[in-house]
């Protein structure tokens, strides 16, 4: 019989090591146990959250807080109760809202409480609390008059729907006004067959229910939003409710666009029949128009603008120095006549005039009468030195005058300066709004250095003109812009005063006269690369005289800009300052073949 060997006895060190390993195993099992418990709890919570998230909320939600005041919904925006009211069973919308969202040119004159809406062809003028309104001065009766509420004018919905491409709906149950802008296209959708569209407060099925839409019911779709497992549309219902609806509830097969409705006619096409660029020259008339028999042929000109009408007083009465025989001569020589009206650069008188709607209309009526009497082809507005605070009133005056003038087939143009920091001479022109209103805008591209400039310099250096031209073309389309060109220059005198400082003064001269002066003093004439013009200088009685010349070469370079930037033409200030050869320079270069 074999005896089994006895197990070897463990050393104390080995026994301690085994015990330690057993303790580690126990701790690992314990740790794994709690990790599994934690993971299980977390997964359970996540599962519950997912189940709760996927479980549709059933709570009802009010679409809008209840209020005694009428709420305005504009397309996809809830604008609250600030801009609308109900009066005599009619919905009224504030002029403040209309100016911001519908018509930036709607105008209110506190003087007389007039609200004026202008288009390219009509002037619609209403007075608050009066049922008689005027469309191009023809009486028309309103069902509801404009009204004043909290010091602001409000217009009735039936008027708005007549003059603007909008629709206004009122829902009495919710005291809600819905205004739709029909000029904007809108995406339409319909609730699917055998489905109920659930409109919710937010893009989640847990959000409150605003409304339940029947199958086939139409909504306007504004945007799309993705939220975890669901895709949503932000929509508006026919009742004016705004909210979110699941994409799965809408059919894509029947999605269509709301067609934009255009009540406003396209921009007026000017009455220009020359079939060529405009070449206008201003005829400076102080008291008497030149005798047509003594007029030069002006071979490079197709429009003459005599300075015939001037604002006499703040009531809008005009001084008139027009001459019918001059118009007859111009027409016989295939030239149109666009008579100029000025404000005599008087800011105070202009301020009072522009703020008075009756004065503005008085001037318009006179222009219409004079245009008919003298058989004019157009009117050129030359208002300068306007106070900055009258900027919008000047725009309004032009917007009111233009439809009346167009009724008589008159071309409407307005003169502006280049863009600068000068308030009265530059910032007072809303160039974009003026261009939107009239047919042509003449930019007076001169007086880089004006008569009282503290330093001598060019009237209009070529780089200065081009740089400023590029800036103004951001406001005015090239096909409307007529580039002003100077026929004059300034002779600058620099003299040392008693304190040793150099004082600068200047006088303006035409091309012929400045040439005579330079010849008399044997002046040095060189070409100035900085201005791209000829420069002349001489000394007399220890004083230095300097001038930058207008020549056939500089005029040609200005006309080159017309072709380079596709402008409407040129306007020269003024006839009488030019040399005889300038008209041929204009004719040969402005009307050159487009292939050149």
Task: Note down, in words, how this protein is organized.
The chain is of the alpha+beta class and 596 residues long. The protein is extended, with a radius of gyration of 38 Å. Helix 6 (357-374) runs parallel beside helix 7 and helix 12 packs parallel to helix 13. The protein is 28% helix and 32% strand. The chain starts with 11 loop residues before the first helix and ends in a 6-residue tail after the last helix. It has 13 helices and 34 strands. The strands form 7 sheets. An 8-stranded parallel β-barrel has the order 21-22-24-25-26-27-28-34, surrounded by 5 helices.
Give the fraction of residues assigned to helices: 25-40%
Described by the principal axes of the CA atoms, the overall outline is extended
What percentage of amino acids are in beta strands?
25-35%
Name the structural class. Answer: alpha+beta
Determine the number of helices (DSSP H or I, runs of at least 4 residues): 13
């Amino acid at each position: 019989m074999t005896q089994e060997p006895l197990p070897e006895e463990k050393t104390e060190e080995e026994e301690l090591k085994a015990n330690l390993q057993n303790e580690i195993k126990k701790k690992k099992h314990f740790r794994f146990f709690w990790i599994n418990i934690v993971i299980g709890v977390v997964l359970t919570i996540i599962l519950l959250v997912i189940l709760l998230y996927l479980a549709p909320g059933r709570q009802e939600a009010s679409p809008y807080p209840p209020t005694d005041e009428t709420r305005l919904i504009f397309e996809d925006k809830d604008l609250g109760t600030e801009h609308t009211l109900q009066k005599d069973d009619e919905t009224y919308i504030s002029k403040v809202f209309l100016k911001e969202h519908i018509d930036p040119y709607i105008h209110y004159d506190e003087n007389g409480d007039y609200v004026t809406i202008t288009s390219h062809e009509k002037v619609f003028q209403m007075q608050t609390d009066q049922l008689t309104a005027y469309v191009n001065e023809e009486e028309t009766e309103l069902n509801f008059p404009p009204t004043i509420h909290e010091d602001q004018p409000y217009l009735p919905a039936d008027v708005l729907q007549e003059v603007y491409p909008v629709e206004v709906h009122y829902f009495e149950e919710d005291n809600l006004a819905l205004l739709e802008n029909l000029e904007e296209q809108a995406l339409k959708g319909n609730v699917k067959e055998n489905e109920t569209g659930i409109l919710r407060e937010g893009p989640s099925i847990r959000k409150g229910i605003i409304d339940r839409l029947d199958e086939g019911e139409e909504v306007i779709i504004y945007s799309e939003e993705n939220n975890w497992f669901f895709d949503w549309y932000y929509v508006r219902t026919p009742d004016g409710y705004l909210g979110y609806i699941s994409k799965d509830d809408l059919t894509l097969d029947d999605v269509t666009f709301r067609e934009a409705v255009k009540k406003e006619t396209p921009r007026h096409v000017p009455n220009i029949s020359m079939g060529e660029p405009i070449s206008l020259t201003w005829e400076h008339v102080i008291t008497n128009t030149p005798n047509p028999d003594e007029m030069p042929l002006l071979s490079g000109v197709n429009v003459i603008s005599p300075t015939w009408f001037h604002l006499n007083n703040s009531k809008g009465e005009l001084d008139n120095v027009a001459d019918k025989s001059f118009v007859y001569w111009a027409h016989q020589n295939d030239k149109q006549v666009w008579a100029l009206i000025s404000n005599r650069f008087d800011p105070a008188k202009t301020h009072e005039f522009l703020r008075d709607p009756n004065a503005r209309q008085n001037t318009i009526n006179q222009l219409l009468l004079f245009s008919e009497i003298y058989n004019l082809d157009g009117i050129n507005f030359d208002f300068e030195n306007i106070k900055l605070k009258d900027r919008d009133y000047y725009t309004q005056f032009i917007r009111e005058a233009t439809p009346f003038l167009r009724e008589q087939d008159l071309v409407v143009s307005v003169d502006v300066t280049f863009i600068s920091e000068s308030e009265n001479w530059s910032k007072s022109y809303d160039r974009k709004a003026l261009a939107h209103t009239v047919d042509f805008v003449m930019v007076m591209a001169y007086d880089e250095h004006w008569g009282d400039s503290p330093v001598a310099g060019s009237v209009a250096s070529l780089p200065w003109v081009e740089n400023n031209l590029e800036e103004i073309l951001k406001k005015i389309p090239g096909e409307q812009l007529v580039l002003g060109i100077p026929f004059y220059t300034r002779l600058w005198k620099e003299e040392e005063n008693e304190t040793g400082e150099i004082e600068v003064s200047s006088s303006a001269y035409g091309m012929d006269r400045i040439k005579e002066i330079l010849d008399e003093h044997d002046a040095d004439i060189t070409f100035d690369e900085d201005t791209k013009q000829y420069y002349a200088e001489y000394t007399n009685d220890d004083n230095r005289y300097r001038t930058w010349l207008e020549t056939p070469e500089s005029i040609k370079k200005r006309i080159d800009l017309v072709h380079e930037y596709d402008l409407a033409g040129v306007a020269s200030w003024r006839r009488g300052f030019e040399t005889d050869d300038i008209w041929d320079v204009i004719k040969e270069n402005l009307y050159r073949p487009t292939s050149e």
